[in-house]
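Q: Could you fold this chain for me?
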Amino acid sequence: MQTVNALSLTLAVNNWLAYTRQPRILHVFGHACNLINERREVLSIVTPQIGNGPFNLVVEDDVLFSKHLNAQSLISIRANQLNLGDLAINTSNAKLWSPCPDWEALHGKRDDITKLLLTNYQAPGLPLRGLRDTPITKNAQGYSTTDSLQSPISNSLLTSLVNADLPSSLTTAQQLAGLGVGLTPAGDDFIMGAILAVWILHPPEVASVLAKEVTNATTALTTSLSAAWLRSAGRGKAGILWHKLFDALISGDEIEIQKTMDNILAVGETSGADAMAGFISTMICWVEKVGAKNPHPALSQRERGSRPDKKA
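A: Sure. Below is the predicted structure, expressed as structure tokens.
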């Protein structure tokens, strides 16, 4: 049995470990292993190369999970320890990491951020400078990301989200959910990026309802892993690469902004590019359609919910 120490985790990971009774392995990769429990909740065990995420348990060693585990490997959980096949992960000294960015600060700088993005990162025909050189412009296993994400449906989703039109947002998000191939289909990645933009564009009491309702309507239409990412975005949670981008947007450092964008674009074959397309397109749609008017979104008081739990 090889013992490795956990570096960091989130409150969601703590809860997963505390309340899971029937865990099983969902996926095994070189630098990550995804588990799922009886409630369809996902836990990702990852190396520092991948880093913090809403449901990530980060271990200190550069473990090659595919060398130790397979789909039938036994899993057991006890106090401060998770056993996976011949790996024992000690969580007793892991630091708690918050997956919620500072949405209030980001919303407060919304106008500066949208102006910066519109000025520097829009390209003809595509929403972000550099996207033409990424897989978003190519067919991925027969599925054209570009064609699907520049459709009337995706355009309708952008308009609905920036106008806080909940019924239309639900309809269009459900039409995009699950479109594509892979563990996180392109349509889902696009929705996730758009939802992260929603948290910046709208006040917290509006964003929380819009984001949660839209993502809740999509999770049953896609894969377990993609649903976990969508659900996290709906709760105002994001991975470390997005945190770094948001920090750069607050600072206004254009070199750091491009660097952090490039890191997101490099994720997966198309996942990072599709999520970035959703994010940038939503931000630019805000400027083009309603940003100058600075409207008060039309969600009713009854529909408005609480702010995201920053301790989560």
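A (continued): Residues 271-289 form the longest helix (19 residues).
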